[in-house]
């Protein structure tokens, strides 16, 4: 397997000329990242391949301006990725933003595959066995070993012929238009730079039952983020979100809980591949543990009018907390408290399940659980039942089926559901919703 490692300005310019002047067809692209070892999931290697030009492994570390310039030159070419939603943010962060792209993982999913890894698909369609055992390595280390580079080159070696096979099968199955819509949606959704951590999305936040607890979580989360950025460590390697939730859950005990957590982390060693990273973590906490203690002290004395907003009464023991992130209560309360939303959610889940079985597709591909909940909640809020005299449309509607189709279609469209999904959704669901 032939490839060229590209790391200097002259090499980057030459690679661009080769890819543009000698290459033809789409550009196969992949990245290697080091999110387990570094603050964020930025790319530490960008692999590209184009028919007629060959494979180039781009090192983006030392000359980011020239790497951005190369990305801009290649942007007009259609790009081909596998699981592009994982690569696009890091590519955009490096200045590589495609104008259009295709994705072999999306193609395989629309053909009914359940195992969507690149190695499995290549073996299924070509019989070639790829060795995929370097994905969790620290790709930020330099120099990169030769065997790692060969592994990285394999990720783009088979993308082009694999996509040709998948594209032909999608055409034969009359699912090509579905595929184009999914690729456009993925580019629109994930074609942005790497997001900064947000405390409102912290895992375990929904378990915190008071505004004071959330203030503690916010203070520790934001301090952790700042320390992690400065040290170029993953935030979770500095202080686990589950530890933040544990500390914040009982404000009266939070100082003692923080001491307990810091003591435990100071003795943590971990598996061999993470020992260097964890050593940096221990050194960081020794130097900056006082900043975490100060953040906690500030949150404990914050005036009530400066606490983060917390809608709804504090739930009683055993009752699910409201889902603050998505704007609706926990779905487990719907049967009791929001029966119209619960009925719609059940109808969506069951009818789309039958449709997916008929099409031999993963039900989540037709409509994600998150979108099912969001549509059902809005449906319940609209109170659109055709038998309810106080409904949004009167029970004597001249076209009740058309009214329901219109509302469901609008609610789905507002959530970014694609046209091909909406068509299947309406065909499968309307009878159940009206039952």
Protein described:
The protein is an alpha/beta fold. It has 3 domains: about 5-190, Ribonuclease H-like superfamily/Ribonuclease H (Nucleotidyltransferase, domain 5, 2-Layer Sandwich); about 200-305, DNA polymerase, domain 1, CATH 1.10.150; about 330-435, Orthogonal Bundle (DNA polymerase, domain 1), CATH 1.10.150. Helices cover about 55% and strands about 10% of the residues. It has 19 helices and 6 strands. It has a 6-stranded mixed sheet with strand order 1-4-3-2-5-6, sandwiched between helices. Strand 3 and strand 4 form a beta hairpin. Helix 11 (about 240-250) runs antiparallel to helix 12. The longest helix has 26 residues, at about 275-300. The protein is flat and about 65 Å long. GO terms for molecular function: 3'-5' exonuclease activity; nucleic acid binding; nucleotide binding. This is Ribonuclease D. It holds the Pfam family DNA_pol_A_exo1. InterPro entries: 3'-5'_exonuclease_dom, Exo_C, HRDC-like_sf, HRDC_dom, HRDC_dom_sf, RNase_D-like, RNaseH-like_sf, RNaseH_sf.
What brief labels describe this structure?
435 residues; alpha/beta; Nucleotidyltransferase, domain 5; DNA polymerase, domain 1; six-stranded mixed β-sheet; 8% strand; flat
Second CATH tier, the architecture of the largest domain? 2-Layer Sandwich
| Mean pLDDT figure | 90
CATH class categorisation of the largest domain = Alpha Beta
The Rg value, from CA coordinates, equals 26 Å
Q: Give the ordered list of helices and strands.
A: EHEEEHEHEHHHHHHHHHHHHHHHH
| Proportion in helices | 40-55%
GO molecular function: 3'-5' exonuclease activity; nucleic acid binding; nucleotide binding
Region (Disordered): 305-330
Biased composition (Low complexity): 311-322
Protein name: Ribonuclease D
């Amino acid at each position: 397997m032939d490839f060229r490692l590209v790391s200097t300005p002259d090499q980057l310019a030459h690679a661009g000329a080769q890819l543009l002047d000698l290459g033809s067809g789409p550009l196969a692209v992949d990245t290697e990242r080091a999110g387990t070892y570094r603050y964020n999931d930025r790319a530490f290697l960008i692999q590209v391949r184009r028919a007629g030009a060959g494979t180039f492994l781009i090192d983006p570390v030392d000359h980011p301006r020239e790497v951005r310039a190369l990305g801009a030159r290649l942007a007009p070419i259609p790009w081909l990725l596998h699981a592009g939603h994982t690569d696009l943010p890091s590519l955009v962060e490096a200045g590589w933003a495609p104008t259009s792209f295709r994705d072999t993982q999306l193609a395989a999913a629309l053909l009914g595959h359940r195992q969507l890894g690149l190695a499995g698909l290549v073996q299924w369609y070509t019989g070639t066995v790829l060795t995929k055992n370097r994905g969790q390595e620290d790709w930020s280390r330099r120099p990169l070993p030769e065997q790692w580079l060969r592994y990285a080159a394999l990720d783009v070696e088979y993308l082009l012929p694999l996509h040709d096979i998948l594209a032909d099968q999608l055409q034969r199955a009359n699912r090509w238009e579905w595929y184009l819509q999914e690729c456009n949606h993925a580019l629109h959704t994930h074609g942005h730079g790497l997001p900064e951590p947000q405390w409102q999305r912290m895992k375990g936040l929904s378990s915190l039952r008071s505004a004071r607890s959330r203030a503690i979580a916010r203070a520790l989360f934001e301090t952790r983020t700042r320390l992690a950025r400065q040290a170029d460590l993953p935030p979770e390697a500095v202080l686990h979100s589950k530890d933040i939730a544990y500390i914040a859950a009982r404000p009266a005990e939070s100082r003692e809980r923080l001491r307990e957590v810091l003591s435990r982390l100071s003795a943590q060693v971990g598996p061999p591949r993470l020992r260097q990273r964890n050593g940096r973590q221990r050194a960081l906490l020794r130097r900056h543990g006082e900043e975490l203690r100060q953040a906690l002290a500030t949150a404990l004395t914050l005036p009530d009018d400066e606490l983060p907003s917390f809608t709804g009464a504090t739930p009683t023991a055993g009752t699910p907390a409201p889902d603050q992130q998505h704007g609706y209560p926990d779905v487990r309360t719907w049967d009791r408290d929001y029966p119209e939303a619960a009925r719609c959610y059940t109808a969506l889940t069951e009818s789309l399940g039958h449709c997916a079985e008929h099409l031999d597709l993963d039900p989540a591909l037709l409509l994600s659980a998150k979108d099912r909940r969001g549509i059902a909640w809005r449906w319940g809020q609209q109170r659109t039942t055709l038998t309810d005299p106080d409904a949004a449309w009167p029970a004597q509607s001249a076209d009740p089926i058309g009214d329901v189709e219109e509302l469901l279609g609008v609610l789905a469209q507002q959530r970014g559901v694609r046209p091909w999904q909406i068509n299947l959704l309406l065909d499968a669901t309307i009878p159940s919703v009206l039952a």
